[in-house]
Amino acid sequence: MHTPEAALTATHCPYCALQCGMNLRPEPGGGSVTVEERADFPVNRGALCGKGRTAPAVLSSRVRLTGPLVRTHAGQLEPATWEEALDAVAEGLARTGRAHGPDAVGVFGGGGLTNEKAYALGKFARVALRTSQIDYNGRFCMSSAAAAHQRAFGLDRGLPFPLEDIPRTGCVILVGSNLAETMPPALRYLTELKANGGTLIVIDPRRTRTAEQADLHLAPRPGTDLALALGLLHLIVAEGRTDEEFIAARTTGWEETRAAAMAHWPELVERITGVPVPRLREAVSLFCEPSSAMVLTARGPEQQSKGTDTVGAWINLCLATGRAGRPLSGYGCLTGQGNGQGGREHGQKADQLPGYRKLTDPEARAHVAGVWGVDPDSLPGPGRSAYELLDALGTDVRALLLMGSNPVVSAPRAAHIEERIRSLDFLAVADVVLSETAALADVVLPVTQWAEETGTTTNLEGRVLLRRRALTPPPGVRTDLEVLHGLAGRLGVEKGFPTDPEEVFEELRRASAGGPADYSGISYARIETEQGVFWPCPEPLPEAEPSPEAAGPAPEPAAAHPGTPRLFLDAFATDDGRARFVPVSHRDAAEVPDAQYPVLLTTGRVVAQYQSGAQTRRVDELNAAAPGPFVEIHPRLAARIGAVDGSPLAVVSRRGRAVAPARITDAIRADTVFMPFHWPGEGRANTLTNPALDPVSRMPEFKVCAVRVEPA
Ligand SMILES: Nc1nc2c(c(=O)[nH]1)N[C@H]1C(S)=C(S)[C@@H](COP(=O)(O)OP(=O)(O)OC[C@H]3O[C@@H](n4cnc5c(=O)[nH]c(N)nc54)[C@H](O)[C@@H]3O)O[C@H]1N2
Ligand SMILES: Nc1nc2c(c(=O)[nH]1)N[C@H]1C(S)=C(S)[C@@H](COP(=O)(O)OP(=O)(O)OC[C@H]3O[C@@H](n4cnc5c(=O)[nH]c(N)nc54)[C@H](O)[C@@H]3O)O[C@H]1N2
Ligand code: SF4
Ligand SMILES: [Mo]
Fold this sequence. Notes:
alpha/beta; seven-stranded mixed sheet; 22 helices; 29% helix; 18% strand; globular; iron-sulfur; Mopterin_OxRdtase; metal ion binding; molybdopterin cofactor binding
């Protein structure tokens, strides 16, 4: 039973990267809270989707974990005390480390964890476990966009401008984002854009609810966005629409990029993508004619084995036309998870230290080791990426602590990954519910949820927000920070893992100071009064002491840094301040259709379910709206294989076979089928997906593989 702590608590949704503001009001009688509109928060201005509205349902003891579970010798998960459970986890991890070395112990985190948790988890891996083997599910999410951002701009923040800029630009190209379903309150920014006379181009193999809003919808074959972007750049050059002044003043590397684009002539691009040349020309006019324009990408073009180059091609297009580093123009990536942005900045990534520092940079190691009070040489080096880490379970990595992900449902080639997880010597999972992955654990640690704890998240705009506690948690659960504190102590590290989130944030501020993602000027108190603060926000340097001879009044204390809603307006974050063109060329997806597997499979989301569904499949209202998996298929393909609407279809790839009912619609290309990935079992889309990795970002190719489709 919960105890409410205030009459009304202003906070944020537990789910996606929009981090909508909401108010929580205690229910009459005090058992839980209900969600109310919070009109003052600018991102969503009171609007919420069904997931946000129903989020309190997951707080109910009917669906959540209420106490620790430990697997008995007979193989059952049985209730245990916290002392027993934490002892078992510490012993399980330490035993493996002793027997096989520290790198035999792995840690897997999540982009839904608050900044404080992500920071503490990365520190726990390096300081308490001394392992290099940590990565997180954000590798499955936006790592390709992150890598392309770094390459071109020298800094990775999803959107370089606030969402409020979108309605005032001239044209938006939205590539592989179905935000009408994945961030419903953000659709408003696109409808306002059109009301203001701007145009919307949507690029998606399906005519989604988002594509229905577009002035121009291009439906390329999945996995061909790179060719499409190169074809558009070719036309831009051929039609003399480049911005030579901008290219000369603010970029480097144009000649090679120009040459690469010239090799992708429109007719070739039409053949690769299936998008007719006149549509390409139309897109170029819409994008180039207004005085400002934006390109926004999401998982469609990013979750490919060439995602980094694909995003790079869209960035090249922006740079060649002077649509970057200027007001109301630029390239942005719509991050996905609640803390998809902050979760990638503070050290749960395999190659990273807090503040978006590099683990291989000696200066960064010295700075962070100083904050942590350890010897820089004791910090391990970079580890494996998420899929490679999961693939090494049971062999090189023999014990795992998992916090904030459900890979049995969400990892590519999931049957193989499930088998790897089952082969571990020891698995501990901290979760709020008994997810499909938690059900395989040796120890399950039940943790508090959003409304029961305080912490910061960084939304898709780079706005650092405060989620506030509204309820006293039920007695059987602890916070993730308490879990890490309890484990570190048992591993012999008594200090450095505080349980108060604000104390962790204060340390994170210092650790991030001077890094690319500098949070040092941000405090809980500031976030409260400012509706969030955009990073980078360095703490102002203290004024130099005036020399005794200097006359006049004492100097003013340094003013607080205002935060940075808009990046790159004066200079890019590279050494010379110029954005870098990176020449890229089209290449095929890792798997292309052949006689045995003639159809393309792509995967994604529906509005009423979230991710692996661990949380939203426990909410009645959401299950009623989206009860199970399905296969979206074009009437022509359905007729060819003899499928009727609602009949079970088997989808078979080189990795396995999934079965789900057919949903016949002409809103999808005839050479492609689509499955949402929210469900386990027979209809699990990830049984089919291809773990081919992008060579730079190590992102798996969730968005395209070859399959055969037949009546089941
Ligand atoms: N309802 C709901 N909302 C969510 C989530 C959720 O699970 N459910 N998850 C959150 C998270 S973590 C994320 S990352 C975001 C994801 O948000 P989105 O990226 O909007 O979601 P997806 O459905 O994965 O993919 C978007 C679109 O890409 C298209 N697509 C598929 N293949 C290709 C291709 O090759 N090229 C192009 N251009 N498009 C392609 C799909 O048809 C789909 O419509 O959503 C966030 N919001
Ligand atoms: N086929 C296919 N597969 C995909 C994708 C796709 O488009 N297609 N998209 C990929 C993407 S973009 C993503 S982001 C991943 C997401 O996939 P997952 O990583 O599986 O994400 P979730 O389902 O959100 O899992 C989060 C888990 O942590 C728990 N949890 C929530 N909050 C907390 C917390 O504060 N602490 C702890 N300890 N636990 C918590 C939840 O109950 C849940 O079990 O899926 C990827 N998989
Ligand atoms: S759009 Fe995202 S943040 Fe907003 S209510 Fe829905 S799930 Fe929550
Ligand atoms: Mo994601």
